[in-house]
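[agent] plan:
  1. take the single chain provided in the ticket
  2. run structure prediction with default settings
  3. attach structure tokens to the ticket
  4. add a short note for the reviewer (M.T.)
[agent] executing step 1
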Amino acid sequence: MFFILNTFGLIISISTLFIFYNNIDPNVQFRDSEVLYVNNDNPNEKIIRQYDINWKTNKKEFFNNHVLDIGFFRIYKSYGIDIHKLNSNWK
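[agent] step 2 finished; step 3 output follows
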């Protein structure tokens, strides 16, 4: 009985690892961020600039995101922000 359950669990574990391994994108090697703007009303809200480096071509891909930092946690509110359309609430 336990042999059948262990075999069934092993098959599920191996298939799950195979599925997750195929979903990992090997092109993204490095991610960094810098703070561009901070909200005047809430200093935890920030516009950050991030980039990914493709390890094959060694080219940077830049994008701006609206985030909320709460302690160790970072909540992404929106992606691909156009910084030219920000109101005067950001410094």
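[agent] step 4 note for reviewer: The first helix runs from residue 2 to 23.
[agent] ticket updated
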